[in-house]
Amino acid sequence: MKHSNRHLYGFDAYTNTLIRLADLAIIFAGGWLAYLLRFGQTEMSESYGLLMPLGALAALLIFSRLGIYISWRGRVRTVLIMRLLFGYFLVGAVLALILFLFQYGAKYSRLWVIMWISSACLFSIVLRLVAYPILNRVRMSGRNRRSVLLVGDAHSCATAIQHLERHPQAGFDIERILVIGDDEANELQKNRHESYSLGETIEHNEEEVWICLPISRGEDVRRIQASLSLSTGNVRYMPDMRDFRLINHSVSNVADLFLLDLSCSPMSGSARLLKRLEDIVLSSLILILISPLMVILALGVKLSSPGPVFYRQERVGLNGQPFMMLKFRSMPMGVEKNGIQWGGTQKKEVTRFGKLLRKTSLDELPQFINVIKGDMSIVGPRPERTLFVEQFKHEIPGYMQKHMVKAGITGWAQINGWRGDTDLAKRIECDLWYIENWSIWLDLKIILLTIFKGFIHENAV
Known about the structure:
four-stranded parallel β-sheet, 15 helices
């Protein structure tokens, strides 16, 4: 079934306008609700009423800058939620800065501002949680869909078809497929009439065109793009990356250069700030809660064997930099004087109290101090000793990529049972999956699962 792109783009533009208007209404409604809850009055004072348009303007500008109002057709929506949270945080920061600079802070209730921004953020998130499933159902019913012409080699086109069939709610339908082999690509280069015929056909049908070819055939991509110069439809390039190990891949614009990110840390910009805030807040709360237990465990270590309470061990963390990781000491002094080796946990000499610490993973609790210091994160790949890193980085593909984020007390590998003397390659696969799929929500999920099944485990060390 053919669809008019003009109708589709008009529908998306109409939806985008409605979302912006809804956000404006939410900001004003959130301010009024916060005023009612804070002061118990429905009639807002003039000074408070004047601040709300300023907040609404700041929100629209910031949200547009963060890409909140771009098309999210077929995209992962958790990214949108994170941008909304960060966007409203910036709105609150801008309002606070304006009130401070103009010395108006005393005229407004701080509690009202916090309630206003928080409620508006909550309502904006709820709006999208309700709206997107409705849009998905509309697309599943056959409306608001876009027709796609695939141009490329057989394997790449088949990959595109499989993914679109797996995600029909994205709203794309494969209308035609133009398979171009090496011989056909050479013919396309020689026969300019054929090239322009291709472009004219697409222009008349107003289709969205996806060029599906490996990066190695970049010259063919350029020629096909040139042949589509008369097309009014969207032209996209889907590079075949099946031979690449991709980590947090995306497209970056640096100094007006478009770069294809193949392996990049997700901890940059706002994500880095959110991750650090998460670590500071949660680690501080946890250390306060477990401080009595820490004192008891410290006494147990001190009374069970001579030596210091803490065991400091050099591990490798973010960007391959070493740091001293803290543990409650579970081994007698001097047990490693003859050297160390990886694995063989059950054969290592430990004190009677140390055996309990290791079995319950309570020896890891001092690492929350490492988190406060900034050496580690609560959630991330477990760090390894420098000696073993130098060995494993040459033996296990992708091993060093786990150091693109801070090392963690717990991680995706640990809650899935890959800890201790288990398969190291499997642990690295889990670590790289975590880096590729990182979000605050994934961190919270891992922390919760650690509480229920991460402390006591047959492979705990």
